[in-house]
Specification:
5-stranded mixed sheet; disordered C terminus; 2 domains; TIM Barrel; 8-stranded parallel sheet; about 40% helix; about 425 residues; about 20% strand; Sulfite Reductase Hemoprotein, domain 1; alpha/beta; binds iron/sulfur cluster
Amino acid sequence: MERRTTRAIMIGDDRTGRIGIGGDHPVSVQTMTSGYTFEIDSCVAEINRMHEAGADIVRVAVPQRKDTEALPEILAQTSVPIVADVHFHYQRALEAVEAGVHKIRLNPGNINDRREVDAVIDACRERGIPIRVGVNEGSIIERKDKQQRAAELGKFFADRHQGHLIALMIAKLEEYMDIFDARDFHDVCISAKSMDARLVIEIYREISARFDYPLHLGVTHAGPKETGSIRSVVALGSLLSSGIGDTLRISYASDPIHEVEDGLELLYCLGLRNRVGAELIACPTCGRIQVDLFTLVQAVKKKLDKEIELPIKVAVMGCVVNGPGEAEGADVAVFAGNQRGIIYVQGERVANVREEEILDRLLEECRRFQDRVRNGEVTLGEKVVEIVPPDPIGDLGSGVAKIESGQVERLTIDES
Ligand code: SF4
C-alpha cells in the first residue's frame, strides 16, 4: 500500500535512540501514561511497562509545575522518547523543554496567544525538539460564540458528516500553522482528533490534502477497550489503508498496555510493521467443538507472548472443519477432535495427544521450531507437507453429514 509523502521529524536522543515520524519511517505506536507524572516511581514504572510492550513513544501530562519538575528524573530512568502534553499553560512547555523532554504537544484550542506560542517554538528550535499541534474536537469550539461560529462555518463542508466541525478544526489548524510558518519552524506533526470515527476519517483526509506535515492519528475518548477498539480500528484502519498516517495512538479508558498491543496489531494486520512475536490464529468455536478451546487459546497466548520472539504463525483450531486448512497455512498448529489434538509443524503431523497434553506439546513444538529457524534449518512460512483434509463431498455427502455420522472423527483421529 502506498503511503502519502510527508516531511519527516525525529524524536529522541542518543540515549533513547531516535524514532522518525513521517517520510519513509515506519508508522510508530504511541501511548500515554494514566497516572500522575509527579509521582515519579509509578510514572517510571508505567512508562517502562509500556516500552516493554512495544510503545515507540510515550506521552505524559504536565498540568502542574511539580510535573515538569519530575521530568529530569523520569527521563533518567526511562529509555523511550517522552512527549510532554501541554494544555492552557505555555510555561509548562518551556519547563518541559528545559528538562530535556523529546517532544511537546500543544493544543491550539487552549494555548493561542501568539507570543506564548512563539516562545515555545523558539525554545524547541534551540533544543531541536519537534512540536505536535494537536487539535481536539472537544476543545476546539470557542465557548463564547460557539453557535455563531458553527453557523458561519457550517456552509463549508456542508455535504460532509459534521461538516461544521471539520471547518472549525481546519480553520483553527490553519490559523495556528500560520504562526509556525511565520517563525519558519517546520519540525511539526499534526493531529485532529474526535470521538466520532467518521469525523476522524473526514478530517484527516482533509488535512492530509492541505499539509505535508506527518500526521498523528487517533480517535480520542474512544471509550473502554471493548467498544473503543472498534471505533479506533474503523477510523485508523481506513486512513492507514489509504496511505494516511505516520504515527498513532489508540485511546482507551482501560490499561494503556492495550493501546500499545492493539496499535501494533493494527499495523501488523495492514503490513505496515514487521511482526514481533508469534501470530496466533484461533477458531471462534461452535457446536462441533470437542475440547475446551477458549481456555486452551488463552493459555497458549500467554505462553507464546512470554516465550516466542519470532513471528511464528500458530493455529489453534477446534475441529476438523477448518483445522486442516489453517494447520497447513501455519508454522505450528493443532486441531482438536474427540478430546485429542493433532499437532502439525509446517504441514507435517508430529503428534496426536490427549487434550490435557496439548498445551505443553504445542509449546514444545513452537520452541523447537523457533530454535530451528534460528539455526537456519527451516524458514518461517514454508510449507513442507501438503495436508489432505478429509473429502467433505464423498460418499457420505456434505461435511456436516460426515460429522453427524461420526465419520470425521474416525477418519482423522488416529489414536495409535
Ligand atoms: S474449526 Fe471447527 S470448532 Fe472451530 S469454529 Fe470451525 S467448525 Fe467450529
